[in-house]
Amino acid sequence: MEANEIYVDYLNGDGIEAAPLSDAEILEAVEQSLAAQGQGKTVIEPRVHLVPESSDKGHFNVLRGYIQPLNYAGVKIVGDYYRNYEQGLPSELGVLNLFNPDNGMLKAIVDATEITSMRTGALTALGGRYLARANSKVLGHIGARGTAYWNVRLLDHIFDFEEIRIHSRRPESRNAFAAQLEKDLGKTIVVTDNWEDCVVGADIVVEASRLPEPEPILKTAWISRGAYVVPYGTMSAVEFDLTDIMDKIVVDDWEQCKPGRPFGALREHVDSGKVTQETIHGELGQIVAGQKPGRESDEETILLWHRGLSTSDIALGAAMLDKARAAGTTQRLKFR
């Protein structure tokens, strides 16, 4: 090979499926990246957005970051088009580029479509590991597409729920989602036709709706004392007083939550000054790194608002790449 030739690893969806990460491996990769964040060994640039025509159609998210222990910098570009189901496509299609931070050379190109769903589910589940009651037995999950599957699967991996309830707007969507979960998890899934029946009495509540515009459908009165609540829809679905009942509010990265950033479940709360850097408990990475406590009693009601971390994408991409290389399912592309 000539000195100026550059080759990169290419890992497509087929290569990922041929050497899949286990649930434990997904959680481990993301948990280690959170610990690195808490230890100050990462760089997380706030995401930026590209809206080609209107946010009603969809938009692109661009996430950028660096993880020192992995020696990778990365950039992920992912589309967020909530009506893609009409074309038989995932709501989120993405690509992750991994770079050598010492010389800027591209090291790998990875299909990030499944990474996006996995890393979101891993954040929800790892938040549960540190912020939910250890004996949580009932999950109420709003939303059936995009990241929903990995939210439920990875939370169940940790808690082994006695009851899993799901709801989404379209009956065909929620019924298909329940069938998939029953097949993969080996347990009965309760399908509800409304938000209230899904949420009331649940130990863990996840709101992953796909609303076209903000609408306060998730009622504060439905949340049980001591629950762990994760609202993270792009468009807010929560009532403004939801934060009033919380003993702790935790975020994944305050820089992506602070005033002036677009979208998110607590956007109005932050922009109005109701939720500030001083009033939140801290970032999840600080808790994972042991710098701040997580749940301290069964009575605490705790909210996790996660916007999505570039470092989670990078950590999962790196783990997938390592496993695929060992299995021989990557391709080598000549860059120049």
UniProtKB/TrEMBL annotation:
One matching Pfam family: OCD_Mu_crystall
SUPFAM superfamilies in UniProt: NAD(P)-binding Rossmann-fold domains
Classification via Gene3D superfamilies: NAD(P)-binding Rossmann-like Domain, ornithine cyclodeaminase, domain 1
Transmembrane segments: none
Protein name per the record: Ornithine cyclodeaminase family protein
Organism per entry: Fodinicurvata halophila
